[in-house]
Amino acid sequence: MTNPNENYELVRQIHTVLVLHFIEGLKQSEIATRLNLSTSKVNRLIAQGRKLGMIKIDIESRFQRLTDYEAKLVETTSLTAAMVTPTVSDNPDTTLQQVGRAAANLLLETIRDGDVIAITGGKTVSAIVDNLTTEQGFDVTVVPLTGGVQGKYFTDVNHLATQLASRLGGKAMLVHAPLFAESAAQRDMLCQVGSVREVFDLARKANIALVGIGSTEPAGSSYYDLNPVPEADRKMLIGMGVVGELLAHLIRDDGAVANYALNTRLVAVAPSELAACGQVIGIASGIEKAQPIRAVLNGNYLNALVVDEETALTVLGSEERSDHDA
């Protein structure tokens, strides 16, 4: 029969060791010296404490609400992961950079040597590149998911691919073709050019795809940086049910690619082809992106989403916003 006094003495010793290790922060070797025990004995006592249920770790964060929003996004959508950044400023550029830093860190946690990283253009992907720093080089290949548009720095996907590859220590393969072809036939011809086909074939099977989510609202819409259109055409797009843009394709609220002539002239990977990628990470910043995000989620195009707090609240709906404002 086990002696109750012996149990008590053992539990008391385990308690002492656990307090010294987890509360006072002593190393196992320091505890061994203080209590005149061997380090292996201290290790066994800690293990016994775990088995007896004497260790309960409670981690608190002043950003717990963000973790809750992330869990809610995963719970209510097809996402397997979400990252929500705190809104620390009313300045949209500051929020954009915050999202870019978070996405850059997620990328560094995800990539492995030998990976292919496929990217779109856009302000959010540009923010990732701007905020990416690493002391370690990676043997990766960065490829565009679309043809190029000359003009603003963030619309030139070849430029962004080159920058990202340089920062990671990898190489870039570029698409030397315009994003918008003159006709569907020219688009088909360009996509069959050997160098273009090679890059897009890699992009379709990329280990990681980083995709911006575009809004078709006039204010701040990068889609119109790619393709300036008259106000009348913008109203027509709204009438067609177009709510956002993914890989330069205009999409409807249900996530389907809109029946819009320009979509047939795009030198780009189709949104449906993202399904063959290992992980598709969507990045968006600003509440005007809420409806486009919902559309992209309805289309089941993403595995992960990086977004700012206010936009996440808008995507999740009024119930979470009421809790946030309370």
Automatic annotation (TrEMBL):
Any one Pfam family here would be Sugar-bind
UniProt keyword terms in alphabetical order: DNA-binding, Transcription, Transcription regulation
Gene Ontology biological-process annotations: DNA-templated transcription initiation
Q: Which residues form the Sugar-binding domain?
A: 62-316
An annotated Gene Ontology molecular function: DNA binding
Family annotation (InterPro entries): NagB/RpiA_transferase-like (IPR037171), RNA_pol_sigma70_r4_t2 (IPR013249), RNA_pol_sigma_r3/r4-like (IPR013324), SorC_transcr_regulators (IPR051054), Sugar-bd_dom_put (IPR007324)
**The UniProt record lists the keyword Transcription:** yes
Q: Which residues form the RNA polymerase sigma factor 70 region 4 type domain?
A: 16-51
Q: Which family does it belong to?
A: Belongs to the SorC transcriptional regulatory family.
Name this protein carries in UniProt: Crp/Fnr family transcriptional regulator
Report the source organism: Pararhodobacter oceanensis
Supply the source organism's classification: Bacteria, Pseudomonadati, Pseudomonadota, Alphaproteobacteria, Rhodobacterales
